[in-house]
Amino acid sequence: MNLVKKTISILSICVFSLALALPVSAKVEGDTIILGAAVSLSGKYSTNGEHTRNGYNMAVQRINDMGGVTVGGKSYKFDIIYYDDESDSSR
């Protein structure tokens, strides 16, 4: 039980950090909250972008596997749409 609480705490911190770290937009479609994230999936920072995307996917999968999030008594799952900024700061 203690491991579950610790895991939930760590995931909560990761998701909160995610929300603060990158410009993210969100919208709700049915029972899904869709998040948008701009990451470098190509170009010179693509390795970092891949790690970031893998971390986001892991967190979303874990949260969804645990039932998603409950807002106002209704459960929602997460989905992420990625935008490749091509490692270009002008984009």
UniProtKB/TrEMBL annotation:
Keywords: Signal. Residues 33-90 form the Leucine-binding protein domain. This is Leucine-binding protein domain-containing protein. The lineage of its organism: unclassified sequences, metagenomes, ecological metagenomes.
